[in-house]
Each structure stands twice: as C-alpha cells, then as structure tokens.
Design a protein that fits this description.
By secondary structure, this protein is an alpha/beta fold. It has 23 helices and 19 strands.
Length: 556
C-alpha cells in the first residue's frame, strides 16, 4: 500500500499541519538545518506526523529518499504497523515463525546453519528484505542500534536518507546500554568455557576498570578457542525437515531443546560477545575518561555483577547514527530544553531547529491531583508506604468500575503493594512478561489496574484502558548507579530534566485525544521538591493541570 493512501486514512490535525508548515518554513530559510527537534505533547499524533514528514520530504527535498523510523518499544512499533500498511516493519528473528521447521526463525536459522541448508521461504528474511528495500522502514531502538553497530553492510545497502526518531528522549540511554559491557558468572557458565572455573575466579578478582579491561582481553582468546571447540563437538548427522519438525513438536510439549541447537545458540552468543568486546575496547581506547565501573548485587542469582558503562552516549550517537543521514527528526513530548537535549545527544545546536507546542487537550480532561503522603525516598519509604495503604484502597474504591495504572518506578514498591494491598483487580508483571500482562489488561472487560515500574513511555492507554492512574514514586534516576552520580555531578540539569520528563510522560499515558479523559494522582511528597527546584523545566500544559489536595490525618 502506498504512503499516499495511508495518509488519506486520517484528516491531519491542526497541530500536525502547523508543525509541518514550521518544518517547511525553516527548511526554506536555511537548507543546512539538519536536526529538527519536535517537542510535541503525548497524544498529539506523532506517528501520523512521521508519515506527513516523509511525504513532505519526497515532494520538497528528494523524491527518491528512504526513511528510517525508529521507536523505543515493540509495543509502539506494533501500533504503527496496525495503523499503516505502507511501513516495512522488522523485528528480531524470535518474532517470526519458521514454517519449514515449525519453530521460531531464530531456531530455524540455527537448524539451517547446522545442516548447511536454507528454507524455501523465510518470514524473517522477507521482512528484512522489505526493511532494506522499502521506502519507509520501521524498527525499534534496540534492533536498529544492533544493525548500526554490527550489521553495517546491511544498513549501507539500505541507504536511508532521513531518520525519524519517535520517543527520542530515550534514545541516548538505549545507545549507552548497547555500548556497555557486562560479563557475569551466569554468562560465563552459559557459554560453556572449558576452563570455566578459572574464568570465574579471574572475574571475581576484578575491582577496577583497568582490571576489567585486562579480563576482557583475556576473555577474547577464550571465546575464540571455545567457538572452535563447540563447533567441532556438534553432531554431524544431517536432520531432515520431517525429523526436525517431529523433534520440535515433542520438545514443545516437554519444554526441551535439541542438543545441537543448544550448542549452535552458544556459538551465536559467543560470537555476539566477541563483537561486543571488540567495539567496547575500541571505544574505550578512544575515550577512556567516559567510562564508569558499575557494581550491583543480583538478588535472584545471588551474585555481584560488574559492568562497564559510558557516562555519556553523545559521541556514539553521532558516530554510528546521525552522521549517516541528510536530515534527522527527533520527536518527543519531553524534549523540554533545546540546549540540554542537544548537549545530551551530541547535536550541533546551530544546525538544530526546535519546535514546541502546548497540549491541545482540555485541562479539565487531564487533572493532576497532588496528594502528598510522605517522601518515597530511601530513609522514609517504609513509613511513607504505611500512609499509602489506606489511600490506595480508597482510590481503588472510588474508581471501582474503571481500569487504571499504578506507576511504582521500582519492582520493590510493586512487591510491597502486592504484599499489603489484596485486591483482585491489581495485576503485576515481571521483567519477562510485561507485553503479555499489558495485552490481558487491554483485552479484559474487568476493571483491572496494572501495577508497574516501567509504563511511563511507549504505551497508549486510550479511552477506557485507563481512566485513572497513581504515581506512587517520583521517578528520580537511581543514585545507587555510579553513572547517574557522575552524570548529576557533571551536568546537574540532566538529573532534573530526566525526572521531569518521566513525570510528564506518565501524565500523558491515558490522555490520547481531545475527547479522552483521566485523573492522575501523585502521592509521593518528593513531587513538591521537584516542583520547587525544577519547576522551570515543566511545560506550562502540565503546570496548568495540577491541583493540590490536602489529605486529612484519618485518611492517612
């Protein structure tokens, strides 16, 4: 389906038309402008605007251009695909079904590598070819950065001219995650090194960045040796498609996996770590002062975990992403500050044009009630949560027939709510099943309330999917992170900017159109401090919606 036919599906909103007129005007003033920062509140139609921008560019700048559209989650990616047929969508291999072997394309690819064969038709390969050759192609941040770092030939063949980044406020963090490197005991055991015990002993001795570097250099040789050993140990029997299908059917029931496929996946993992270490060492050598050693204790595995992370990602964004395009559009409801955003993303502020609008939605439809019950900070969170329990019960009763969200900003707070507030309407997810739980919340007729630390961005709770939400903890970046501490020290504005942006993103989750409505209730008293010291960063549309409500002692 053509881009033109997709554009005819919806009448452009006033905000979208005005934004496009602004882009056209600024381009005609100075064709050297490369970056357009579009600060558009949640729900103003950024997805459709992306298509309008592509159509404008084809008519005004380059009639043969290709457009790369990227967004921060597979959920938002699916929303694009469900709405527009002209977009060439690409996800990871696990999301496609191999019809030849009756498994995922990721596993089917491993069978083909093992047998030195190819599927007659591969859904993932077809999607990838569509992505490479398509006029307008879409993927998520994670897969896109993977391509730019490790599959440069594919991206060069695609030859995109224009990059459109949706939810751009998160892009630098995702790049930082990809450049980071983390080797744990669990990883070492999974990769089946022959001298696993010695590698773990060496890892446990690491206590500094220089020690980690030496460990990684030694690990490079171990990885190369292990790849050769694993490939030699794999079975040589060539399996037929029929036998593989039968084996997959049995394993699906029993929860098992073919032994040779397990080994093949280990080889793939080893090769990925090999590439990751190579890129890390190259970037570390180029700028050793931009790195920090993070140390965490994993409660689930009972292990200390060390990772090397870049303090800032802007050098890598320019090198691996922005430098490859003629024009870049960065869209978000929380860019908030042009100069700071340019600094964080490594953009030339002289070549960046900033456009910002207020929310077009009526204030009466999006009230924010501030009900301070105590600070959800480290020292006082236990006492504060005792105040939360009766009020959350009261809120659940008030909205007894409505769906809602409780934003916790941590799994710890979500677990406290699960432990002390026994209400069958409350639903929870862990780090592995968020999409499934979210879909169940959307599909059910029951007035479920989803409790989550990670629904501030990328999800639309339009209409009856949420008529109320509670922000139970102000989403300050954790200062248990050494990287966050250094960021705050080096650029204090970053800490406030990130927190204010997250609050605004949360506020916009359930308000998606002019007729939509929902109540937002903030109960963490830290919000008062945020307003007092960082109020200048909040957009006016958010400030206009705040109503402070004093809680009587008996309600606490």
């Amino acid at each position: 389906m053509s881009l033109k036919r997709d554009l005819l599906k919806y009448q452009p909103r006033k905000e979208q038309r005005e934004c496009l007129d602004f882009i056209d005007s600024e381009y005609k003033k100075n064709k050297e402008n490369k970056f357009f920062l579009l600060n558009l509140p949640v729900g103003t139609g950024k997805s459709h605007l992306a298509l309008m921008i592509a159509d404008w560019y084809l008519k005004t700048v380059n009639g043969n251009a290709k457009f790369d559209v990227i967004t921060n989650s597979k959920i938002l990616q699916d929303q694009y695909v469900e709405t527009y047929e002209s977009i060439n969508d690409l996800k990871g291999k696990e999301n496609y079904e191999c019809t030849q072997y009756s498994c995922s394309c990721a596993q089917g690819n491993e069978f083909n590598r093992l047998n030195k064969t190819n599927c007659e038709f591969c859904p993932h390969s077809a999607a990838r070819e569509g992505f490479v050759s398509g006029r307008m192609s879409l993927t998520n941040f994670y897969l896109y950065i993977l391509f730019q770092l490790y599959m440069t030939k594919m991206m060069d063949n695609r030859g995109g001219n224009v990059l459109i980044v949706d939810e751009a406020h998160d892009f630098d963090d995702v790049m930082s995650d990809f450049i980071s490197i983390k080797i744990t005991e669990t990883v070492v055991k999974r990769l089946k090194f022959s001298n696993e015990d010695q590698i773990i002993r060496d890892l446990k001795k690491v206590s500094s960045i220089s020690g980690y570097i030496e460990f990684l250099k030694g690990l490079q040789g171990e990885i190369a040796t292990t790849i050769s050993e694993v490939e030699r140990s794999m079975g040589q029997t060539k399996r037929t498609v029929k036998s593989v299908k039968r084996e997959n059917a049995v394993n699906k029931v029993l929860g098992g996996k073919n032994s040779d496929i397990k080994l093949m996946q280990i080889v793939t993992d080893l090769q990925q770590y090999q590439s990751k270490i190579e890129i890390f060492l190259k970037e570390y050598n180029a700028n050793p002062n931009n790195w920090v050693l993070e140390s965490n204790y994993n409660e689930k595995t009972k292990q200390k975990e060390l990772s090397l992370e870049p303090i800032w990602a802007f050098d890598y964004l320019d090198k691996y992403v922005f430098s490859k395009y003629d024009m870049v559009f960065l869209m978000s409801g929380t860019i908030l500050d042009k100069n700071l955003f340019c600094q964080l993303n490594g953009l030339d502020v002289e070549k960046a044009i900033y456009y910002s609008i207020e929310s077009p939605f009526p204030v009466k439809n999006r009230p924010v009630y501030y009900m301070p019950l105590g600070k959800m900070s480290y020292k006082s969170k236990d006492d504060t949560f005792k105040n939360y329990i009766p009020l959350i019960h009261k809120i659940l009763n008030k909205y007894s027939d409505k769906k809602g969200i409780i934003h916790t900003n941590s799994f710890e707070l979500a677990s406290w709510i699960s432990r002390d507030i026994k209400d069958p309407r409350l639903v929870y997810h862990d780090s592995s099943n968020k999409d499934e739980v979210l879909q169940e919340h959307f599909d059910t007729d029951k007035p479920t309330v989803i409790v989550s630390p990670s629904l501030s961005v990328g999800v639309s709770f339009d209409d009856d999917k949420a008529r109320f939400q509670v922000i139970a903890k102000v989403p300050y970046p954790s200062l248990a992170s050494q990287k966050n501490k250094l960021r705050q020290k080096m650029n204090p504005d970053w800490y406030s900017w990130r927190t204010v942006g997250s609050v605004c993103q949360m506020a916009g989750r359930p308000i998606r159109s002019v007729d939509d409505y929902a109540d937002t209730i903030i109960i963490d008293s830290n919000f008062g401090d945020l307003l007092r010291y960082s109020g200048h960063l909040f957009p006016q549309w958010f400030l206009d919606s705040i109503k402070k409500v004093e809680i009587k002692q008996k309600d606490k």
